[in-house]
Structures are given as structure tokens and as C-alpha cells.
Specification:
This protein is mostly helical. It has one domain (4-85): de novo design (two linked rop proteins). The protein contains 4 helices and no strands. This is UPF0147 protein Msed_2034. Belongs to the UPF0147 family. It holds the Pfam family UPF0147.
């Protein structure tokens, strides 16, 4: 069973990767907005780590199909989703 510390470390890692997407001006605005929303969900202290990860994954999964997304951004989003999918309560 994953410890809370492990989950929080994974969430912090995901936030760092998403922050890079948000700060990249070559990424379309709607994708940056979705990444910001995912970060906000990940930082919500009222929810358990698994729920925060699931909420963020839902946002990122939806936006990952955008045809306007640059390839390197899509790969970053997939990496974040992979990290978040390992979070369990």
C-alpha cells in the first residue's frame, strides 16, 4: 500500500511537469488552462490524494486528444497521467 508521503511526492512531481506546460507559450491557451485546472485539483487539500489524482487525470485525458496540441506537450501530459494513475489511497 502506498504511503501518503509517496502519493504526495508523486503529486508534486506531476505539478512540476504540468507547470512546465502552463509556462510554455507555444502551447495553445485551452491546453494551458486545462493544465492549470489539473494543478488546482491536485492542490486541493480537502480531497484524498487518489481523488485529486483521478480528477486531474479526467481533465488531462480529455484534453490529450486535442489535435492542436504539440507532440512534446502531449507526451508530457501522458507522463503526468501515468504518474497520477499510480496513486492509490
Amino acid at each position: 500500500m502506498a504511503t501518503l508521503y509517496d502519493n504526495e511526492a508523486k503529486i508534486k512531481q506531476a505539478i512540476v511537469l504540468l507547470q512546465k506546460v502552463v509556462n510554455d507559450t507555444s502551447v495553445p491557451r485551452n491546453i494551458r488552462r486545462a493544465a492549470s485546472d489539473a494543478i488546482r485539483n491536485l492542490q486541493d487539500p480537502s480531497l484524498s490524494p487518489a481523488v485529486r489524482a483521478a480528477n486531474a487525470t479526467a481533465i488531462l485525458d480529455e484534453i490529450s486528444q486535442d489535435p492542436n496540441m504539440p507532440s512534446q506537450t502531449r507526451i508530457s501530459i501522458w507522463n503526468v497521467v501515468s504518474i497520477l494513475e499510480t496513486i492509490r489511497d
